[in-house]
Amino acid sequence: MLLTLIFIGACAVEYVPKRAVWAHMSTVDEVRLEKDIPFARMGDALFLAFIHIESDGDPAAHRPRSQYYGLLQMGTAASTDVGVVNKDNLVPLTAVSSFVDYMHLYKKYHGWSPSRMAVCWKGGPGTCKKLGELTRKGVSLDAAILQLERANPKLGRLAEYVRRFRVAHSNYTNWLDEGNSPYQTESLIGKVAMWFKRGAQS
Questions:
Q1: Torsion of CA 195, 196, 197, 200, to 10 degrees
Q2: Which residue of 1, 66, 171, 183 has the lowest C-beta tally within 10 Å?
Q3: pLDDT tens sequence across 87-135
Q4: Phi-psi region of 138 (alpha: psi -120 to 50; beta: other; left: phi over 0)
């Protein structure tokens, strides 16, 4: 009985994202305005989820001997694709902007599907293209992801990465839907962005 109550209580706890993650939404707002990014394609929850699973909000995130750097852990191939010269010193604005450029570059493979975007970011455009080929043959999305992971050990734990992304994306979507706001800046660009957000949601 006690364990049941503990389980129910744990499930009832409201998800509260880390400030280190949502604090970067002012940067996302700035990039959104600059590049005119539709919410329907890349919503706030999408950015927050990627930031959450990639760096936990740390703009200087980097593991020793790793090729991945920054807020969104941009690697060598991705940085080359979007023309980033110095990926090992990415400020948040450049990291988010480059991430958007990358997703626009390979939109024909992921089709703005959040799960496919996760595959594209983790496994690259080639993997995302193969994913599309498998699903068009009738293979389910999750089965196709597992098949690609098993066929190429270099992809690492692709299925687990997508699972973690989905959990984060769902959590942030629900958090935002409940009326919470990641907007925590007094900058002029942030105020303008929030004005546009409110207009888009009205």
A1: 130
A2: 1
A3: 778 899 999 999 999 999 999 999 999 999 999 999 999 999 999 999 9
A4: left
